[in-house]
Amino acid sequence: MKSSTSFTLLALTSVVTGFPAYGTRMPLLRDDLPAGTPEFSSRDSDPAVGVFQAPNSTDVRSPCPGLNALANHGYLPRDGTNIHITDIVSQMDSNLGIASDFGLIQVAGATVLGAMSIIDGLGLGLKSFESLTESHNTIEHDASLTRDDTALGSNTDKNQTLIDQLFSYSKDNLTLTPTDIAEARQARIKDSFTRNPNVTLHKLQTDACWREAGLLTMVLGDQNGNIRLDWAREFLVDEKLPTDLGWSAPSPAHGIIDIEAITQTYTDLGQSLNAADGNFPLEF
Ligand SMILES: *[C@@H]1O[C@H](CO)[C@@H](O)[C@H](O)[C@H]1NC(C)=O
Ligand SMILES: *[C@@H]1O[C@H](CO)[C@@H](O)[C@H](O)[C@H]1NC(C)=O
Ligand SMILES: *[C@@H]1O[C@H](CO)[C@@H](O)[C@H](O)[C@H]1NC(C)=O
Ligand SMILES: *[C@@H]1O[C@H](CO)[C@@H](O)[C@H](O)[C@H]1NC(C)=O
């Protein structure tokens, strides 16, 4: 794993220029850093690591509930800044159950799309969750299940009305099935095409829509992909890992094969719901 990790990340260096020199190559991974380098992450020095604490007024959060939950538990820096890629990948793996093969591709993609940068000359990471907020139409996109479209409101702050709309698609008011989530997704797409003259849902953005639905299902769903509503409420509203309600991070973590399979399920459901709903001009 280690060698493929280094290989993947080294392949990225060609897309970023102006790396400060360190030794013979840029230390991209935490393990590459010289002994005695202060940690980027507050994780190792935070006595309350794992304990949920809602963000305060200066903590920065992202459009992504999963990353926010990791920060709210101190698995990533609680202030939402200087987040090393190694921490993102390893914390997604151990505390969300999303394996590092998938996580590495995500951070590679985020690097190519310009969201990652060099933190104080020490390695690659997110200077702040804000760079995900600023990534409209590259990483962050319209028709989110929980955030407003950028042209209509905040693409970072949760919108409780939208979250309630998502939950209203539960037919038994106890679980969200993949079909429920796909129907809620289509309602958001329809809403964006109806109200947002700037709506942009080309293939890059729609792929993100289906993959995020897949990730929600992977993190919270049972073996049939059904998500307990009380777990979804804690995760999406409080951005809290619902361990107090009996959830634990899937172990072993879900790898890329599982994630792409559920993403394909959402793509297929999305395609047939969109066809039945008047064929909004999405790219699949
Ligand atoms: C918010 O918490 C951060 C740690 O995440 C701390 O550094 C900062 O001083 C706090 N800000 C306020 C306004 O309490
Ligand atoms: C929406 O589109 C218009 C016209 O292209 C543009 O002037 C405006 O800046 C866009 N607004 C946002 C928030 O993207
Ligand atoms: C939240 O979403 C609803 C429904 O789309 C919208 O009417 C409302 O303006 C949004 N609220 C905020 C604070 O953006
Ligand atoms: C669904 O359940 C929640 C709490 O479990 C309750 O507050 C809400 O009123 C219920 N909604 C419906 C439509 O029954």
From TrEMBL:
Its cofactor is heme b. GO terms for molecular function: metal ion binding; peroxidase activity. It comes from the Eukaryota. Gene3D superfamilies: Chloroperoxidase-like. Pfam families: Peroxidase_2. Keywords: Heme, Iron, Metal-binding, Oxidoreductase, Peroxidase, Signal. The keyword Oxidoreductase applies. Residues 48-261 form the Heme haloperoxidase family profile domain. Residues 1-18 form the signal peptide. The keyword Cell cycle does not apply. This is Peroxidase, family 2-domain-containing protein. It comes from Mycena maculata.
